Amino acid sequence: xxxxxxxxxxxxxxxxxxxxxxxxxxxxxxxxxxxxxxxxxxxxxxxxxxxxxxxxxxxxxxxxxxxxxxxxxxxxxxxxxxxxxxxxxxxxxxxxxxxxxxxxxxxxxxxxxxxxxxxxxxxxxxxxxxxxxxxxxxxxxxxxxxxxxxxxxxxxxxxxxxxxxxxxxxxxxxxxxxxxxxxxxxxx
Length: 188
Hints:
single chain; 188 residues; mainly beta; six-stranded mixed sheet; 12 strands
């Protein structure tokens, strides 16, 4: 049938008659498609809504088993294996120093790529893919300080709800993954 449709379309074009297209049904109004909208995957962590640029996320997986690695930071759940790829798996609520909540069936692992390496970020729930125009984005407030502030790239608004856009390089800073020895912790 698609062959017949193509032949009919080609015949109409060859006939010289005006062919009606989807644009003709716009009733003279041109629908502008914005090219400056950024897409973000939104997810919930400890009741707050966060987002990462869609191009930063390689895959969304169900939560999988991890193996604990001694002398690592408390936010590092361990290492996991997804189809033969070994990766560190991070509890995002602990990394962001939020109060942990009981994870349900909606919990997922966002598999991201940073510095040629895969990482897993455990979140409570993946919500949606949204588009945020530049005018709905704000720099993080200057008064926002402390350890959590470095993990925030920007703040966005989507349907009146605040979305905290995370800064992946700061979240995955390898120097934070190793727990300091007790003697070094006492000196700092």
